[in-house]
Amino acid sequence: MFDTDLWPLGWPKCRGFPTIKSKFSYCGTGEHVAGREIAEVHTRACIYSGIDYGGSNAEVMKGSWEFQVGTSSGIKAADDLWMARYFLNRISEQFGTIISYHPKPMGKNQPGIGCHHNFSIKKMRDEGGIGEIERVCKVLCDQHDKFIKNYGLGDGNENKKRLTGKFETASFDSCRWAVADRGASVRLQRNVKLKGKGFLEDRRPAGDCDPYRVCCLLAETCL
Questions:
Q1: Smallest Cα–Cα separation from 18: which of 38, 4, 32?
Q2: What does the pLDDT read at residue 17?
Q3: Is the C-alpha dihedral spanning 54, 55, 60, 64 positive or negative?
Q4: Sequence-distant contacts of 11-20: CB under 8 A, at least 24 apart
Q5: Burial class (CB in 10 A: 0-12, 13-18, 19+), 84
Q6: Which residues have a Cβ under 8 Å from the Cβ of 165 and sit 6 or more positions away?
Q7: Do 222 and 121 form a contact (C-beta atoms < 8 A)?
Q8: What sign does the CA torsion over 57, 111, 222, 51 have?
Q9: How far is CA 140 from the centre of its chain?
Q10: Family per UniProt (predicted)?
Q11: Theoretical Cys-Cys bridge with 171: which of 88, 160, 165, 203, CB 3.0 to 4.6 Å?
C-alpha cells in the first residue's frame, strides 16, 4: 500500500526507511503495521460479495498485507482473486492510497510480493495421495522455466527480482520442492507429509500474476 507520494504507508517521509525490524511487522499490531483499516474494509467487501475469502494478515514489509482466496473449485479461484483485487483498488481510492502488486516494489533489500497458489486434485486428497503430490512436484520442477515465464507479467522478468533465494524465496534459476521449507519453490506442509495426502503450495507466482494463466498451467501440467 502506497501513499499518494508513492512511498509505502507507515514509512518515514522524504524517502526514509522503517526503523522497526520487519520481523515485528508480520502479523503485527500497533506501530509495527500500517493500512489495517483498508485491509479490514476489503475483508468485509469480499465476504459480502460471496468471494471464497480465507483471511488476511500484515506482511513482513511494513505497509504490505496478504489476503487469501479459497478454498475454491476450478476457475472460481481465479475469478475470486480478480474481483478481490478490483475491490482492493476501489477501496484504496476512498482512503487516498495506491495499491501495488509489483513483485519487488521497494528494491533488492526489501521483501517482495508473491501470490502463492495452494493446489490439489482429487488423487492428492485421497488416501495415499502423497505419491501423486510428489509426482506433481517433480513435474512442476521439470518444467520450471515454462512456469517462471508465465508466473508474472512481462514474461516473468520482474518476478525474477523477487525470486533471489532471499526473503523466504527460492532462486528463479533453479527449482526444488521440500517439506515445511519456506525457501523452497514448491512447499508441502508438514501435516500433508504426516497424513500422506493433501495439497501442495507453489510459491513461485508473483503478486501481479494472471491467476487464470497460473490455474490453467497447473491444471494442464498436473491433470
A1: 32
A2: 87
A3: positive
A4: 11/62, 11/63, 18/62, 20/62
A5: buried
A6: 171, 183
A7: yes
A8: positive
A9: 17
A10: Belongs to the glutamine synthetase family.
A11: 165
Amino acid occupying residue 161: K
The one-letter amino acid code at 168 reads E
Hey, what domains does the chain have and what are their CATH numbers? 22-95 (3.30.590.10), 117-221 (3.30.590.10)
pTM exceeds cut of 0.90: yes
Cα–Cα separations (whole angstroms), residue 144 to 51, 115, 149, 156: 31, 17, 9, 12
Sheet holding 186-188, edge to edge: 117-119, 200-202, 186-188, 177-179
Counted residue by residue, the chain has a size of 223
What gap in Å lies between CA 18 and CA 22, rounded to an integer?
Answer: 8
Query: For residue 31, what pLDDT is reported?
Result: 86
Which of the residues in the chain have pLDDT under 70? 20-23
Residue 200 pairs in a beta bridge with 119
DSSP state of 71: S
Reading the block at residue 152, the C-alpha cell is: 508474472
Q: Which of 189, 23, 25, 24 is nearest to 9 (CA)?
A: 25
The C-alpha cell that represents 90 in the structure block = 476501489
| Residues forming a β-bridge with 206 | 114
